[in-house]
Amino acid sequence: MRSSSRAVGLALGFAADWYFADPRRGHPVAGFGRVASALRKVMYADSRAAGVAYAGALVSGAATLGVAAERLGRRPLAQTAVTAAATWAVLGGASLRREASIIGAALSDGDLAAARTRLPHLCGRDPRNLDADQISRAVVESVAENTSDAVVAPLFWGAVAGVPGLLAYRASNTLDAMVGYRNAKYRNFGWAAARLDDVLNYIPARFTGAVTVAAAPVVGGSPLRALRALRRDGARHPSPNAGRCEASAAGALGVRLGGTNTYGDVVEHRPVMGSGPAPRVADIRRASVLSGAVGVVSAVAAVRVAKALGPRRRTGA
Asked: How far apart are CA 20 and CA 15, in angstroms?
């Protein structure tokens, strides 16, 4: 049955990401990024219409590729293999935790320069003037937000829509990271990519928040405290989705997130989430453990959803 092939493929792809992380070279998402960059040079204009056409062409193209891949693999074993490969390609949980670990190790060794150099691998914040505690906060916030973007959301769309859902979601999320900024250049052109990413992450972000609350004991946290932070602070973030992830993580970890962030020439003042002390270096590992736990729960849920949404066997005469 197609539902079983999808479910098994999602499970295998999640396991592949967990144990092998992203391939060092030839990553399909990097290839998509190069195509998107080339097309941006041709299609860019300071208008929402141009941005709609740009995002629409790339996301629909990714979805069409997914449809073609599923049709080529009509046998259950082939469908499972295609789904597993696509899931592995679009997930980024292991790489997220690995980058956090590298930065955490540099900070633990007192190598602030190395941590600053590595931070752009994880987020777009300007690291030049950040101290160890500020970098720790940036890492914890990035891990919390990207647990949804890199793990929960792709699993959700894979369960609901199979390989087309996996590829279309990753295309949308990648475009948001490329052009979804509120600066002078991309405020109009990147509008469609940013709004589409908001829509596709709406349910996954809230699921991430709920699971983070439940998983708080994994890192010695309190589910009640995490729930309070989620309910009080989740909607305060300028992003309709990131706040749910960051607020619940702040409550689960018992730390305070938010504050002033610098992105190149843009300075943003983010609302405070959580009521504990600011994150320290040791909280980076705790955030990664929490992210891993949320990922495992999400994978189990995705497998169950894929099975539930599949065609059911008919009984009787």
From this structure: 8
